[in-house]
Amino acid sequence: MRDLHLSLNQTQRVRLQAALDQLESYAASTAAAAASVTVADSIPVNHEDNILKGHGTSDLDGQVVATLCGVVERVNKLVYVRALRSRYKPEVGDIIVGRVIEIAPKRWRLEINFSQDAVLMLSSMNLPDGIQRRRTAVDELNMRSIFVENDVICAEVRGFQHDGSLQLQARSQKYGKLEKGQLLTVPPYLVKRRKQHFHHLDQYNVDLIVGCNGFVWVGEHVETSEKESTLLSDKPSGKQETDNSVPLETRRHICRIANAVRLLSVIGLTLTVESVTETVEASLRSNIEINEMLGSEFYVQTVEREAQRRASMVRKRS
Amino acid sequence: MVGLSEGEKQFLRGGIEQDLRSDGRTRHQFRSVYVETGVIPQANGSARVRLGATEVIASIKAELGKPSLLHPDKGKVSIFVDCSPTAAAIYGGKGGEELSMELSVALERCLLGGKSGAGAAIDLSSLVLVEGKVCWDLYIDALVVSSDGNLLDSLAAAIKAALSNTGLPKVNVVLGASPEEQPEVDVSDEEFLQFDTSTVPAIITLTKVGKHYIVDATSEEESQMNSAVSVSVNRNGQICGLTKRGGAGLDPSVILDMVSVAKHVSQQFTSDLDSEIAAAEASDE
Amino acid sequence: MAASTYSPSQGAERRQRQQQMRRLSIQSDWDRSDGRSFIQCRPAFLRTGAANAASGSAYAEFGTTKVIVSVFGPRESKKAMMYSDIGRLNCNVTFTTFATSLRGQGSDNKEYSAMLHKALEGAVILETFPKTTVDVFALVLESGGSDLPVIISCASLALADAGIMMYDLVSSVSVSCIGKNILIDPTNEEEVCQDGSLVLACMPARNEVTQLTLTGEWSLPKINEAMELCMDACLKLAGIMRSCLKESANLSN
What we know:
The complex is a heterotrimer.
Chain A: H1 10-29, E1 36-37, E2 52-53, E3 57-60, E4 63-66, E5 70-75, E6 78-83, E7 95-104, E8 107-111, E9 118-125, H2 137-141, E10 152-160, E11 166-170, E12 176-177, E13 181-185, E14 198-201, E15 206-210, E16 215-220, H3 224-233, H4 248-267, H5 273-285, H6 296-317
Parallel strand pairs in A: 2-6, 9-11
Antiparallel strand pairs in A: 1-5, 3-4, 5-6, 7-8, 7-10, 8-9, 10-11, 10-12, 13-16, 14-15, 15-16
Chain B: H1 6-17, E1 33-37, E2 45-51, E3 54-65, E4 76-83, H2 97-112, E5 128-130, E6 134-146, H3 151-165, E7 167-174, E8 184-194, E9 202-209, E10 212-215, H4 219-222, E11 227-233, E12 239-245, H5 252-284
Helix pairs in contact in B: 3-5
Chain C: H1 7-26, E1 44-48, E2 56-62, E3 65-75, E4 88-95, H2 110-121, E5 133-142, H3 147-161, E6 171-178, E7 181-184, H4 188-192, E8 196-203, E9 208-215, H5 220-252
């Protein structure tokens, strides 16, 4: 929870402090507090074992010293430091959302909130006509008919290139261009790896795609079969002036869900589909206007709800 | 500034048409404004204003100087805006100069009034101590810390808050024996004159996207604008300044309509801003 | 309200104060204007997370010197086109127009930017972010003396907040030599009439000096004394920085 920039009145301040203290007491009960280190703190190790020095550590006169601020993790003989507010650490198979910044020969370059840009090869992308064949020179010239600059794309991490940047693939039907919605950026450490990153919220007719890199897409629901047909019907010249604007009811839901994501990222809570839907339902219950979800009253209410949730979890455990 | 895909642009424009923007606001709603005063203790007055993710700091320094020969009965005010590289990487070095210049000029136009001094935010003749010899020079410095659209409105709000935080020390002037001699000044350390900021106007920027105009645009919405009109309205509903930006041409009736919308919106915004400033001043003490 | 600038009277007052200082410096024992002893630093107030948009940031307040540093990255930079197996550190120091008592031009201070870079490059492990750049932007909100050491310490804190791998935190202090006396952490008015100065930046846990600059006329034992004083102060300052990082780590849990 960084610098809070909302004007709270006195009662709100008191309620917020009480909820924060409650959350802190639950966090402190875990052993994490004891193992936190800052830069150049020496890590206690048993020198008899052959300790493997992992990420975030270095050797100083035989002592193992941290080079990052974070929590010390030990796995068998490996000792490493896990940073608390780390950057995105990609793994093969991650689902990410990115934006095209450049079209290069036979590939697209995407910005994905990582230290380097990622690459999507033409061969890792389904062709519009759906036939599996070798990419010809004509395909290369028509790359623009598939994706242009600034398009938002959902893809999967295929592997790493020799210089450490990512290679992506978008072969399946569920990947591809994202339209009719908005893209949000949240800190990557708030997104934990789960089985599912594509969430179709039926009751709102909204797609919620939580990218592991911190880009979150909230948009109108698109059937996966429809995605292929839109690629075919995309005319390379001119924009589509067809009447495909989003209906007002769906738009309301999209904005509500987007605001819930913004609120959770400002508070610093992990972003899961459950937390997002819970927040949206709570806002509907309390009859809060969509834009008021980002205001001080709902902020304090959400923190209080989280404290109550943790309290009930602790009670269930004990 | 990152670009937007076609799909995102259509979503944005559709939202504005349907009066429901991406964060749930209607076309005429402002983001919540947050004011802090007295952030620069060594200045005469200062304030920090947050409008959504846009954050600006304004500081006011007063120095004794000589009035210009053209206007011996007026003090001097100069406004200078600086875009810090923390706001966007392009602002480092020469990148932010053009934007800073544009913002400084627009602010001066809205806050300094006509040549005769009519409609100015600050009564310049109140800054004069000895006509023709000694006056106050006010230097208003504004710093853009982070930018998410609508810089002009936030800067004007910050300047207003800083002015209400400003205290000019009382000066005792001892006139010299002959009219040509420079009078002696004795600056008091205790007594201060507060500024009356009820005449300071607020600036409302209306951004035209498609057929509709929106208030308080984020940088995403600003990237989609055809044109924008910034109107400065004071407490009495008088227009104190107007600037049109953007290449697209506007029908004159549209401009007049935008001005009346700005007038209407400014009432709510000014009262919100004033209560925020009052709360900030109260918590400062 | 703090004293502001009034051009007519300021000149005379300042000159009087400087003359007074010169007279005092010949003696060996006198009080500093804020009541500190010669070997006492100003109380330090440090806070991380001051700028939300940056990867890491820190705010430092040492008496009347206020600095805010934001760190962006590691991110791709348009300038560095060549492949390199180590990262690039880009430092930039700006003074705001209201930082000094005499309203100055708010432009980039190239000298301080270069010195900040030299102080930090020994501590940052550049091999961990090849091909990319880490941008460090320092903004001086108020200049109250001993500016560069405060900028260096604050920048090191911001880098740790951003999760950039470093061998150790870099802390920095400066000493002024006035007459026979050595004063640590000088204020503006002490710096103005100093005979010599020594700025030291070091990594306390490794006992390594990353930057040392000296001006004026110094004898060897004096340099020794000054360096020892600085290293000791740097160690204490690093302890304060460390506890600040621990506190913010506990909060984000």
